[in-house]
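Dock adenosine-5'-diphosphate; give full complex structure.
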Amino acid sequence: MAKKQFAVIGMGRFGSSIATSLTNMGYEVLAIDSNEQRIQESINTVTHAVTADSTDEEALRSLGIRNFDVVVVAIGDDIQASILTTLILKDLGVKMTVVKAQNELHGKVLQKIGADKIVYPERDMGLRVAHHLISPNILDYIELSDDYSIIEVKAPEAMIGRSLKQLDIRAKFKCNVMAIKNNGVMNIAPYAEDLIRGEDVLVIVGKNSDLTNLEKAYS
Ligand code: ADP
C-alpha cells in the first residue's frame, strides 16, 4: 500500500511541528506558506516546501492539492484565510482536511463548510496542563467527546497493594479502568482481583465530572 501523502498549509509553530513530525516518521510532506522566509526555514525539515497563498484557488490546484491524502490547515491568526482555504480545499475535492481552530466560533464555521477534523491545540493543551496541575499523577488526558474522556494516571500511593475489586472505582466513581500499564507491559481488560503495584499507570475512561471526582479523591 502506498504511503499516505500529507500537505501542511501554514508553517507557524503548530504547522511546522506537524510537518516535521510526519517527515521524521517517514512520510512525504508538502509544506505551503505565503511567507517566503517561513518556507526557507522549512526547506531542510520537510520533503517539499513551496511559497503560495492558499486562498488562491489556482495556486492550490496547480500544486495538485487534491491528490494528497490529508491536508492540514494550520493558519494561525488569520481566520478569514483559514476559512477560505478550507472552503477551496473541499471544493477542489480534498477528502480529508484537518483544520486548526482559534476559538469555538471559528470551529463552528469550519464545521459548517465541511472541515473533516477540527483541532483546538491551545485549548486542548491548556486542558491537559490544568488537569496535570490539579493532580500531578495525571500523565495524559484524551477528550472523547464534550462529556467523556480517558485519563492516564500514575497509580496513587493509596491504591498500591489493593485490587480493583477493593478499590471499587466503578461503583464509587462510575469510571472504568480499561488497562494497566507497567514498564511498557500492557494489561488490557484487567481482572477485578488484579493488584495495583507501584509504577503502574492506570488507563481510566469516564464522564469528565466523575473523573475529576476520582482525581480529587486520590490527590
Ligand atoms: P502558530 O500560532 O501555529 O504559530 P502562526 O499564526 O504564527 O501560527 O502561523 C501561521 C502561518 O500561516 C504563518 O507562517 C503564515 O505566513 C501562514 N499563512 C497565513 N495566511 C496564509 C495563506 N493565505 N496562505 C499560506 N500561508 C498562510
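Observed: The radius of gyration is 22 Å.
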